[in-house]
Sequence to fold (344 residues):
Amino acid sequence: MSSSPSDGAGQGNTEYGRKRFKRSRSHFADRITAAGEDGWPVEAGRYRLVVNRACPWANRTLISRRLLGLEPAISIGVTDPIQDDRSWRFTLDPGDRDPVLGIRFLSEAYDARETGYPGGVSVPAIVDVPSGKLVTNDFQQITLDFATEWTALHREGAPDLYPEALRDEIDEVMDGVYRNVNNGVYRAGFATTQDEYEVAYHDVFRQLDELSARLSGRRYLVGDTITEADIRLFTTLVRFDPVYQGHFKCNRNKIAEDRVLWAYARDLYQTPGFGDTVDFDHIKRHYYEVHTGINPTGVVPAGPDLSGWLTPHHREQLGGYPFGEGTPPAPPPEGELVPAAGRP
Fold:
């Protein structure tokens, strides 16, 4: 989630809903790999993952990190859900500074990497702690590398989130999810013409209908365990009714009104590593307070009722097991618990 005028906050806050939406490509696409081909080798304690709990792209990295047990290997910095013109800020930390990086704004890590970088400051971002430089903001690649390049640091019993035998199918499913669901809700929400909005709206619900049909007889999107595809769909589904259904005008129906998708979303939410990364308070405050071009009053809705997320889903009857031959992750570290205000 970027702070560029095209798809984020900063000077673009008031432009939401007034300028045509365009998803920025990740400018810093270096990879952290086991062999360190780009100069960034996998190394425990060297990097810091900067996230915002409101952002679906950042939420992916939090889920992947939890499922794989990478908490001891890569620390996290959590930014305030409300941005200002200087980008994502560390006002949740003492002294308004990230306690590890020592910076007040994520833009400082971008500037350390490339002076005068003109693009948006986005999360998720991985920062090299010793140098203070941004390593990557490639939201599409970070979690794939967590699954495949960081294996030496995975916890015992970690699931295989990107199994080699299923990668072609996973990639195909993720492509449709990204274009029409993850990105589709933004295209609808930030549309500046009726035609532009309606194209995006129909793309969103056509894809959701296809996914609902796919999931009607199977517990997970690909195979019989959780994969990267499920992570990527979940982060949009969990935000749909609180934000996208109303704020982004994706209002044909709520996810809670689709029997299959609602049960699927609840199944994942109740799976360790998913719901314990979701902060509904941050989600609602970010979208409704930051997007002043869409919601000029800044009023944050009191609803929806979140208690349904904890109700039985019965998806286990479809078979499969979330972690395959692995095990659930341990509870979140004490310092990473989502505050009570953000939970059902």
